[in-house]
Amino acid sequence: MHWKETLPDWYVKEYGYQPCVNIGTAGHVDHGKTTLIQTLTGVWTSAHSEELKRGITIRVGYADAAFYKCKNCETPLGYSVTPKCNNCGKESELTRVVSFVDSPGHESLMANMLSGSALIDGAMLVIAANEKVPQPQTKEHLLALQTLGIKQIVLVQNKVDLVSYEDAMTNYSDIVKFVKGTNAAKAPIIPISAHSKLNVDALIEAIESSVTTPKRDESKSTILHVLRSFDVNKPGAKVKDMKGGVIGGSITQGTFKVGDEIEIKPGLPNEKTGKYEPINTEIASLGTGA
Length: 290
Description:
Blueprint: H1 9-15, E1 21-27, H2 33-41, H3 49-54, E2 61-69, E3 79-80, E4 93-102, H4 110-117, E5 122-128, H5 136-147, E6 153-158, H6 165-179, E7 189-191, H7 200-210, E8 223-231, E9 245-253, E10 261-270, E11 275-282
Parallel strand pairs: 1-4, 1-5, 5-6, 6-7
Antiparallel strand pairs: 2-3, 2-4, 8-9, 10-11
């Protein structure tokens, strides 16, 4: 059953059939960011052929997850990503739907991570328990979160199943030292194994308590931060035969409807003036989803 089929009336009235908060993943390459998102959402976000071949995330990926809480169980045992409680088997209540933005961890792909971070309301900084703290991209991504003013952060100590208890505690202490004096200094540190789904309920509880749902002002002029675009025209198509393009991103204020006239900035470069000129066009269709 898809989470859209489980949405209560109050949620649909407030947010429609879409997530209400964007949470990014950050951290060093191969520390388990994409595996963690798959555990939470069931979606493997590194679907591009080059990503599958190289085993790393190159493009920013998206996936949505619904969080549920069982009123019959103590926290964090009552939290799950399914309508039925994993602890007692009874029906759980939806808390909210979250959109995850999976950012690349490789140093040469830092620009993609930064463009993804511009859309997020909070972040999970994933740190592997079986490697020294901090790794290069761990430092860079935390600095990026600092620069962007992201203060709602959950620290995820992943791969604890690969180390001894003593080594996990040493790694935990190193994480505490690493984030001292940063936006993540007071962030919860949740030890998990994304691969075996260990302690995922505690992670969901930490996300629910640490990352609040932002207020979106639908009365303001609409702003969409574009993260990716697609050319749907056939190669060599004449101007009169062009269908337009597809853009994807996140609306931070206002609303769109089919037929609205929009301005895309910075647009295209003017070779004569050396400046960019905005593109003015009309919305032909709208959709939501990862």
